[in-house]
Amino acid sequence: MGGRRPDAGHPRETSWERVATWYDGWVGDRGSAYHRQLAIPAVMDLLQPRPGEEILDVGGGQGVLAPYLVDAGASVTVVDASAKLIAAAKRRHARLRGAHFLAGDARRLMAVVGLGEAAFDAAVFMLSLQDMDPLDDVMHSLDWALRPAARVVLLMTHPAFRQPRHSGWGFDAGRNLTYRRIDAYLGEMAVPMKSLGGGLPTRSFHRPISTYVNALAEIGFATDAMLEIPDLPPDRRPGKAAGGDARANAEFPIFLGLRAVRG
């Protein structure tokens, strides 16, 4: 059940343009509950932005991370393939000084007007790299944008435990134990995700952790930190409570964070 590897020879359409209005409404100015309580603190912990740094937020959507980076004294450039989300970013953060928002393809950053070669001290992919394909093209593009001494932070749903449509909760009645069921891991696959109004779904591209570590190594980055982040406690979870009990949710991480450095 490993699925098939995405065809690197034919880049897929990965923009969230067709679900941009829904996504913007869900995330808002400062992020959803999961952004505010889990994703953004993890990214800031790994990145440790410094005053005066230039940071590239790749796939940053409507710029939810930008205020946090600016508050830390850094300048941020948000690039996203969805022109609607970039328009929302400009509208939501019109008064935010030190932030720039550009529509462009993460696989071809060198073609984005307003970006320069070796212009950034760090790059962030917050819940975005898992929606990009082919990975090699994104890494080559990232290499062009970053300085020789730089760092990269990735945050994604955990590839080992939260594969879309290939993982879930189970219950062992004999042991009175909730467990995590994993149907596939090593095989790379493209999984249809969000579809609105009968339109084509967005896609998530499952890859094992080693694929990300090795892809970063190919452009000279060594992974030096990792966070595995459990779900919110049931009483802090928005909307309908997820499956699994509190102990199981505390044991099986929902997000994986990686930091890699070079130079």
Summary tags:
Rossmann fold, 28% strand, 25% helix, disordered N terminus, globular, 263 residues, two-stranded antiparallel ribbon, alpha/beta
Radius of gyration: 18 Å
Looking at CATH, the homologous superfamily is Vaccinia Virus protein VP39
Low-pLDDT runs of 5+ residues are 1-11
Shape: globular
Neighbour order of strands in the largest sheet: 3-2-1-4-5-11-10
H-E order: HHEHEHEEHEEEEEHEHE
CATH topology name, in short, is Rossmann fold
Query: What is the class in the CATH system?
Result: Alpha Beta
Number of helices in the DSSP assignment: 7
Largest sheet: 7 strands, mixed
What is the number of domains?
Answer: 1
Taking the alpha carbons of the first and last residues, their distance comes to: 40 Å
Arithmetic mean of pLDDT: 88
Percentage of residues assigned to helices: 25-40%
Number of strands: 11
Provide the CATH architecture. Answer: 3-Layer(aba) Sandwich
Helix/strand structural class: alpha/beta
Sheet-strand content, in percent, reads: 25-35%
Task: Describe the model.
The chain has 263 residues and is α/β, with parallel strands linked by helices. The protein has one domain (17-262): 3-Layer(aba) Sandwich (Rossmann fold), CATH 3.40.50.150. 25% of the residues lie in helices and 28% in strands. It contains 7 helices and 11 strands. The protein has a 7-stranded mixed beta sheet with strand order 3-2-1-4-5-11-10. The longest helix is centred in the N-terminal third of the chain and has 15 residues, at 33-47. Mean pLDDT is 88; it is low at 1-11.
